[in-house]
């Protein structure tokens, strides 16, 4: 059974929807800016910048909606509504519609502000909707509620691989016959002093406070950590037969997923990258494709000194000399790292790359790591082969040793 | 300075509108929270919590079930003010 992508939605640091986000990505714009708050002075938060949303959810949602949903769920709903409309609001039996929208962290703003309420104003002031707002399944639950997705609502939690894992599970949900259509993706709203402090405590974040837009620089010799971003990405997955029966516009096919675990360390990737490479291999096998079919990779590449090169070596191992002609893009250079939303936004990018046959650029790479043996698309977009069927891999890896690779193909 | 019933109604309506998106003109004394305004128990508890804060009164859980209409809540809150 073939699964296709019929709708796309996002709200990201680059734009409030897919069109503006994609346009900014092709233009090589950064969505990373200095934070307009006093966290540095008040709490000593060491990182003063992030990839904040271009359009706040409260600008597009009603006040009751923003009051009952954590920002992570708000972003998911914004992206899901766009994707659903983009797919032509499919007429599907609710019992054949699934929702799989993940978050890596969940309602961290809700959790921590409710704790502030307890401390400052007492337990009786905690609002009754606090639990449904902070639970990490809240985004997928709200999507299920809004679109009457009754085949099942899931939210796999696998840190920065969550969004990609959700889309991989969406593929499985349709292939296994549980659903005809799945609203799949990921979201994250963690630009808050605590997560920033905690990531900084791990030495995971870039500290380039004097150059926010230049801070996320995957594969550059001067890279010094990732840049936190926020937002959501959602795709509408549909069995090809269901899509064709209703005359849907089809962007691309989702042909395969590979999911492995390192079983190595709670936060560090396994140094040989074997698990990552195996995820890519499994995804290609699942897709029934060979490495020769791959023309583009949207890399996980978060701009960390260690992680970037483990992935790049894995891609080289997998593709061999073919890697010299596979357009590799690291879009986190522009968006920052959306954690649980990353794999989903990057799936949107991967689908757009196949649809438009254009690989988006990687910005901020002034001196590529001398060990880099991949064909990095730098500064300006690159045309992909205009003829024939082409395929692309989207990689996402997460703390805990989660490795997810998705294989998309043109129609 | 205790508020009048009208002022309490106005303040309560603000909370209800903000919480549910119901048109302010709909929030009148005779309306039942559940039957007319379609407010579920979680939203009701939220409105009560916000009203306690706004009007500086205590509305014990066992009394909430007696607040069937908007008017019931207005009367209760007005009476509970010092």
From TrEMBL, chain A:
Name of this chain's protein: 3-oxoacyl-[acyl-carrier-protein] synthase 2
Known EC number: 2.3.1.179
What is the gene called? fabF
Function description: Involved in the type II fatty acid elongation cycle. Catalyzes the elongation of a wide range of acyl-ACP by the addition of two carbons from malonyl-ACP to an acyl acceptor. Can efficiently catalyze the conversion of palmitoleoyl-ACP (cis-hexadec-9-enoyl-ACP) to cis-vaccenoyl-ACP (cis-octadec-11-enoyl-ACP), an essential step in the thermal regulation of fatty acid composition.
Listed under catalytic activity are:
(9Z)-hexadecenoyl-[ACP] + malonyl-[ACP] + H(+) = 3-oxo-(11Z)-octadecenoyl-[ACP] + holo-[ACP] + CO2; a fatty acyl-[ACP] + malonyl-[ACP] + H(+) = a 3-oxoacyl-[ACP] + holo-[ACP] + CO2
**Which pathway is recorded for this entry?**
Lipid metabolism; fatty acid biosynthesis
Keywords tagged on the record: Acyltransferase, Fatty acid biosynthesis, Fatty acid metabolism, Lipid biosynthesis, Lipid metabolism, Transferase
Active-site residues from the entry: 160
Among its keywords, does the record have rRNA-binding? Answer: no
Asked if the Swiss-Prot or TrEMBL record annotates the protein with the keyword Metal-binding, the reply is no
Give a Gene Ontology cellular component term annotated to this protein.
Answer: cytosol
Q: Which organism is it from?
A: Demequina capsici
UniProtKB/TrEMBL annotation, chain B:
- Would you tell me the protein name for this molecule? Acyl carrier protein
In its keyword annotation, does this UniProt entry include Phosphoprotein? yes
What's this protein's function?
A: Carrier of the growing fatty acid chain in fatty acid biosynthesis.
SUPFAM superfamilies registered for this protein in UniProt: ACP-like (SSF47336)
Pathway terms, separated by semicolons: Lipid metabolism; fatty acid biosynthesis
Which GO cellular component terms are attached? cytosol; membrane
According to the entry, every stretch annotated as the Carrier domain falls at 3-81
- How is the polypeptide modified once translated? 4'-phosphopantetheine is transferred from CoA to a specific serine of apo-ACP by AcpS. This modification is essential for activity because fatty acids are bound in thioester linkage to the sulfhydryl of the prosthetic group.
- Please give the InterPro entries that the UniProt record associates with this protein: ACP, ACP-like_sf, PP-bd_ACP
Similarity comment text for this entry: Belongs to the acyl carrier protein (ACP) family.
């Amino acid at each position: 059974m073939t699964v296709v992508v019929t709708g796309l939605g996002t709200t990201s640091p680059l734009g409030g929807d897919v069109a503006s986000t994609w346009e900014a990505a092709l233009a090589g714009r950064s969505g990373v800016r200095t934070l307009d708050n006093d966290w540095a002075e008040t709490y000593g938060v060491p990182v003063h910048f992030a990839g904040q949303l271009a359009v706040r959810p409260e600008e597009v949602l009603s006040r009751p909606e923003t009051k009952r949903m954590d920002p992570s769920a708000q972003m998911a709903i914004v992206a899901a509504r766009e994707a659903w409309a983009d797919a032509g609001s499919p007429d599907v039996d609710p019992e054949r519609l699934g929702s799989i929208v993940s978050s890596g962290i969940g309602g961290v703003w809700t959790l921590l502000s409710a704790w502030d309420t307890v401390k400052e104003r007492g337990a009786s002031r905690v609002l009754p909707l606090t639990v449904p707002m902070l639970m990490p399944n809240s985004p997928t639950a709200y999507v299920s509620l809004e679109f009457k997705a009754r085949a099942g609502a899931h939210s796999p939690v696998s840190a920065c691989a969550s969004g990609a894992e959700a889309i991989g599970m969406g593929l499985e949900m349709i292939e296994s016959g549980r659903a005809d259509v799945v609203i799949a993706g990921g979201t994250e709203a963690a630009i808050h002093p605590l997560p920033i402090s905690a990531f900084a405590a791990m030495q995971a974040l870039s500290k380039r406070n004097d150059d926010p837009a230049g801070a996320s620089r995957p594969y550059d010799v001067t890279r010094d950590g990732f840049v936190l971003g926020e937002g959501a990405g959602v795709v509408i997955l549909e069995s090809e037969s269901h899509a064709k029966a209703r005359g849907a516009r089809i962007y691309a096919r989702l042909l395969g997923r590979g999911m492995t675990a390192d079983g190595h360390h709670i936060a560090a990737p396994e140094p040989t990258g074997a698990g990552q490479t195996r995820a890519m291999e499994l995804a290609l096998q699942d897709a029934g494709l060979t490495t020769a079919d791959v023309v583009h990779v949207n890399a996980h590449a978060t701009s960390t000194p260690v992680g970037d090169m483990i992935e790049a070596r894995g891609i080289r191992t997998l593709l061999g000399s073919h890697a010299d002609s596979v357009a590799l893009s690291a879009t986190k250079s522009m968006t920052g790292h959306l954690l649980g939303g990353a794999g989903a936004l990057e799936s949107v990018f991967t689908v757009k790359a196949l649809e438009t046959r254009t690989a988006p650029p990687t910005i901020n790479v002034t001196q590529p790591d001398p060990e880099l043996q991949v064909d990095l698309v730098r500064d300006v977009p690159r045309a992909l082969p205009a003829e024939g069927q082409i395929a692309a891999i989207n990689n996402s890896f997460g703390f805990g040793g989660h490795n997810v690779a998705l294989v998309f193909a043109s129609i | 300075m205790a508020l009048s019933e009208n002022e309490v109604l106005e303040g309560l309506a603000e909370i209800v509108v903000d919480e549910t998106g119901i048109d302010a003109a709909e929030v009148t004394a005779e309306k039942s929270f559940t039957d007319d305004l379609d407010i579920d128990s979680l939203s009701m508890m939220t409105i009560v919590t916000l009203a306690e804060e706004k009007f500086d009164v205590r509305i014990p859980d066992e009394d909430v079930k007696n607040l069937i209409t908007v008017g019931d809540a207005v009367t209760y809150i007005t009476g509970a003010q010092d």
